[in-house]
Design goal:
The complex is a heterodimer of chains A (about 725) and B (about 425). With about 725 residues, chain A is an alpha/beta fold. Chain A is built from 30 helices and 19 strands. In chain A, α5 packs across α6. With about 425 residues, chain B is an alpha+beta fold. In chain B, the strands form two sheets. In chain B, strands 1, 2, 3, 4, 5, 8, 9, 10, 11 and 12 form a ten-stranded mixed sheet that branches. In chain B, α2 crosses α3, α4 packs across α15 and α11 packs across α12. Chain B is globular. Chain B starts with a helix and ends with a strand. Classes of the chains: A alpha/beta (about 725), B alpha+beta (about 425). Chains A and B meet through α15 and α16 of A and α2 and α3 of B.
Amino acid sequence: MAHSVDLNTDLLRLDMDDSGVATVWIDDPSAEVNTISRETLDGFSEVLGSLEQMSDLLGVVFISAKEASFIVGADLRMLQQFDTPAEIRGLSRRAHRLHWRVQSLDVPTVAAIEGPCLGGGLEMALSCDYRLASTHDATKLALPEVNLGLIPGGGGTQYLPRLIGLQQALSLMLTGKNTYPRKARKIGLVDALIHSPGLHEAGRRAVRQIANGTVSINRSQPSVAKRLLESNPVSRRIVYRQARRRTRSRTNGHYPAPPRLIDAVKTGLEQGLDRGLDAEMRHFGELAFTDESKALVQLFFGRQAGKDNPVSQHAAPFRTVGILGAGQMGGGITEVTAANDLDVVLKDQTLKQAAAGKRQVWADMNRKMEKGIVNQFERDKVAERVVPTASYDDMSHCDVIIEAVPESLQLKRQVLSEIEDVVSDDAILATNTSSLPIQRIAEGVDDPERVIGMHYFSPVGDIPLVEIITTEQTSDETLSTAYELALAQGKTVIIVNDGPGFYTTRILALYLNEALLLLEEGADVPAVDETMRAYGFPMGPFELLDFVGIDVAGKITEVMDEHLPLDRVDISDSARKLADANLLGQKTNIGFYHYGPAENGTGKERKDFNEDIYRNLGQTSRTTPPAEIVQDRLTLMMVNEAVRCLEDGILRSPSDGDIGAVFGLGFPPYLGGPFRYVDQNGPGAVARRLRDLAYQYGSRFDPPDRIVQHEGRGTRFHRDD
Amino acid sequence: MPSDSHKHTAVLVDGCRIPFQKSGSGYTELMSYDMGRMVLRGLLTRTGLPPDELDRVVMGSVIQDVQTSNVAREAALAAGIPSEVPAFTVTMACISSNQALTSGVDLIRAGLADRIVAGGTETLSDPPIRVARPLRKRLFEARQAEGIQDYWDLLEGLNPRDIIPESPSIEEFSTGEVMGESADRLAAAFGISRREQDEYALRSHQLAAEAREDGAFDPELYPAAVPPDFDPITTDNVIRDNTSLEQLRQLPPAFVKPFGTVTAGNSSALTDGASATLVTSAEVAEADGLTPKAAFRDYRYVAQDPGTELLLGPAYAIPQVLDAAGLALDDVDVIELHEAFAGQVLAVLEALQSDTFAEQKLNRASAVGTVQMDRLNAWGGSLSLGHPFGATGTRLVTTAAHRLHAEDGRWALVAACAAGGQGHAMLMERLP
């Protein structure tokens, strides 16, 4: 008779049906999603004990009782509480033992997966004989540990390659990327798919049919080429070598997890499962205590925290967003807005310009359609949300306005003042600017309470950050609605106070200024770029200047110039000189480098270095300082200014500073952000290095008060470690 | 006005259309669903109506695409209208969107809906081409075929000409007559000369060109931008600004050769386009703070023998709707009459002022009346603006409402003929 089995744990429930099929419901009553914690492992241990005692057991289905969510991975807070690698190894060991116990049950076991099945969740599923996934939109499988500076610790490095093959497994684990149901079925990560409402019943049927032999677990054979490559140790060595090479070129050796992941996989395949599990356990334990992993985990927490709108109670509903300016920024903002189910009225001076913004959205969706991510209807629906216009008349019912017209104070004031008369009194007016003070822009508007800065980063679709800038007059309603909008656009948000360059532009301006000073001292442009890329920035400072536009950078420096104490910062005028010579960067196809059409047909790409640049600046000889000096000067200039932003009250917290620098400017994630950088290197060491640099290069490197305070007290910016 | 009638009076809040384009030009690559979606989006933007407040979307369409046979539903979903809003497609040849509109009006009159969108969409650039019946039959049977022998057997008796695809038939299904032939015969029956037809066609193009120059269409045109280039399409491209009687005279008869009078020049052209209107009850319009342009007072549908009077429907429908409202033809300030063919328009006008026609066909003592030409199609018509079958009806209604305001009139009459021998007429009264 169908009945429930009493358990001590409240994280799992065990039901038996009439035919002897057990269902293990995973359902943490204290959380919205299931995670793998010590308690969960205790729970599984208890359930297995119970199952092992049953004489008439036909098989087991593991399934989540949560709404479209299987298990989202290990409980990271739990991992943080461990003090030694040995404790973490112990946890890993327990997971391995549970895996073995599931496999040792002499009845069929089936994981019935719906929603995210990540990390330890997927490892749990790997222990079953058979995996069934629902085709629900939320279903995705991944081992994303590498993104947190870790490797899978529950047997993933061993069992995944044995299930889906070495190359496929390495690719999934080294990128941490999601696999969606159809692909999962294709690569053998799951054995069958079913629609959402039939998942549990299908799980029980799978158990019965495996038990009576109607379904045999017969995974499709890999291709001949793949079998040849992966079937012997000699050719497998080629695979390991390729993986290591690719990893090195992607990470420049700054991330310790990927090489250890490869080592764990290799040990397991070449020396046997037990040795492999030992290697996994050892690496997992050690990695959890690396600075890199801690930095990445803290960034993850910071980003999660940013998903809660701190003033959500004030938010007004919005349906239609009006965007002024259909250029690169306006088009990008339109795209992330329309793609997230909001209507957009996109205005530019002519209908043709506005329609070009719509084309950008359509073209992007069309690429997604060609890749099979969306169908034709979904593409059409997103593109149709965008209404291009040359007239304010079509914007009267917009709930939020985001202006993205060119960076001119007068122009921005003018368009906001014009639109203010068109929209309702409740509509909020956001301005997308990288450097103009919001306060000054708001002066053009009758009601400055509704004005706020929303600083997006180019390319808008790829850069996660939105920096929201409030003035003293900005109302809570305005802030709250802008925050909700940025979240709806899928963005990571920080709130900062108004000031020259706010936070991100201010620290970036000084970083780029320092690069130009290096250039003036005779540093070689490609060498500096290469050095900074090797340090972990996505592009070098000169490439970045070309990307944002040398004229824009020059203008930002001008704006900043008025506000920065001159004795503290030597302002380079090289950007202005180059801009005067019409060397603007990518937009003129020439700046520090030459640019031309990309070979893959989308956009532009960097070609050769522009040798004439030194002559333009009247320089003849080249001497580049050692890489370490270049890295320290540039990075510490950014760090220093970030700390000053905190002192000046621009930043609300060190965590915002880290999130903003990493997700907006590409500050190397393994360093965790400017504040984490100071904490991990120690405020004392950083202060000493700054004093050295100040002695050699000028007072702009003087350590800011807060660093000196932390040095004196032996404290840190972050209190979490 | 008593509150109950206020509640059940349907009013036109606004209407719009994408610019009409000659088939094979601006919208060649589009499905009718694409154009339907675009015009619905335009209407929502223009009116600012929250789409979740809609009760129904009704669209007319004539040439069906089997992928989107309920094109209203697919267009509404893709336009961002919530999935909870039902949508249906109606088809009644050239008066399909008139039927779409009156279906919506009926829902409001019956108290079953407060806010509806009615419109129409049509592409004639991509007619559905089918393989011949013998091949279709075999393809259907092939689904059950197993093995080479079965497939081989299916080929037996298949004639080589059976593999030639067939275009959709343009003849009237019941009579086998092409519509242009009917128009030619109708013109002859009412004594309409070739010259009169050409002059009427010229008038249509000239009035449309003037109206466009005056910006008369600006309130009803919602610009289109079409993938992959998204170059805006902002004006109708069927209007021939420079056509002349000289040119029109030289065109050969298109249907009845060599002595017929209907030519390509005095017929409406194959056109792609879409139009839509927002209709609410008078009460809801007031509550929502909307300013409706006109109220729908009455309408009639009529049908005759498609063999003899294929395109004469308006001559029957107009007197009926006028009688119902107690109005005379002269009381009407604005007339929007669908122009399928110049000869058909003139035949209808002739029938209306004919005592004989009135006695024999309408059972009336005397003629309905003479249409004053300055009230008829003053901004051009289907001959010059184009005629995307399913989209013409709501274009006529929107233009009629705009003309009432521009010409300071009170009553507007919209009428149209349709394949199958059917016809429609509707009376609108200007608001406020």
